[in-house]
Design a protein that fits this description.
The protein has 466 residues and is mainly α. It has a domain of 65 residues. It contains 28 helices and no strands. The chain starts with 11 loop residues before the first helix and ends with a helix. Keywords: TPR repeat.
Length: 466
Amino acid sequence: MALEPNERPGPPITKFESMLKTDDIYFFDAEDFEDIIHHYLNNGKIALAKKAIKISLEQHPDSIELKLLFVEVLVFENNLDLAEQLLDELQSIDSSNEEIYIQRANIFSKKDNHEAAVMLLHEALNLTDDSFDIHSLLGMEYLFMDNFEDAKLNFMKCVSHDEHDYQSLYNVIYCFEFLEEHDGAILYLNDYLERNPYSEVAWHQLGKMYFEKKLYKEALAAFDFAVISDDTFIGAYFEKGKVLEKLGRYNEAIENYEITIEMEDPTSHAYLRIGRCHEKLQNEELAKSFYYRTVHEDPLLDKGWLAITDYYIRQKDFTKALYYINKAINLDGENAKYWKKCARIHATLKNNDEAYYAYQQAVDLGYFEFDIWFHWANVAIQNFDVPSAIEILLQGIVFYPDRSEMQYKLAGFYLLISDFEKAQHQLINALKIDIGQLHLFKKEFPQFYHTDWAKNLIQDIKKASR
């Protein structure tokens, strides 16, 4: 039963939901249905949006706007073929409706054809004066294409239209960051703050830009203004704490991290940073306490387990350190630095096979820093496996061909297996690169350094270099 106009139960959404609870049928204007559907879509209530679309099209079967909302839901649910069929019908009726081009662009975007989506959005721009939503969509498409310059320009247009569009502001700064244009971001934010001096979001972003450039005093001032603008802005307190750490003001940093804990439920990251501050202050027991709180709050935070590992390494309790580094590796087994640390702990405990394996994992994961080749080779030597030690250093020399330290060590390893020809070649290379490092060879291989063979070779190289 349809109600009389004076019996309508209130605003459109309340009225619509009242209708759903009864068998009554209420009539709505097409514009009211649009508001109802937009409300449900904006709040993620897709089922209610679809129900409203169904009823709206029964009451207004010729409404292009309502059919376009139906298309929007079809695209959201990846029912792209049906969406395109409906768009074809609508375009034959109203070819100048920009929303048709926007929805076609959304379909192409879903299909990862972002170039076509951009072309359609530019066509939509030519059909409307209300273009800022389209610029936002263009910005996202350019981000998908890794075209950060054009993405930045489109998001800037959104911000110029609505300076409280913080999502677009964040996207602008994201583009500056990716392009490594920190100076450009600082200029942009300072200009924005001239017009919006109490924008805590802009102050926060400006502080982060200064932090990236290691301008810590400027960063601290920016975060202070963010807090002045909004004294409940947790992110500003946290970032301010990080700056204070860089300035060596650890007690003040702790105070700011504690504020974030007081304002909302404690976070593992806050506990971790407080622990690091206490570590810097040499409050070892307090540091340990906060590291344990970190992993209690979030057992999946590998950095918490790593912090506990480092604590026990400092205490020279390598058995416990090994237990906790394995916790970190179980959470992030692709982290080469964790494997390297694990290897060093095993080597200290004389677990040479495990240390060898851990070093190999670190290298396989891309850790090629200079020191790892030495430590790994030394583990092989501890296992009396000279050929493996030689092979390891040969790999290392590929990355560091001009470092004499490796050449001297490799010469000594060849001498261990009596391969005098290769030892001579390697020792000559080492002497030519840096004869001043000869003391390394003397210290590690005194049994060879004092032989006539080595003395004569060294003497010949010294004469040749004069």
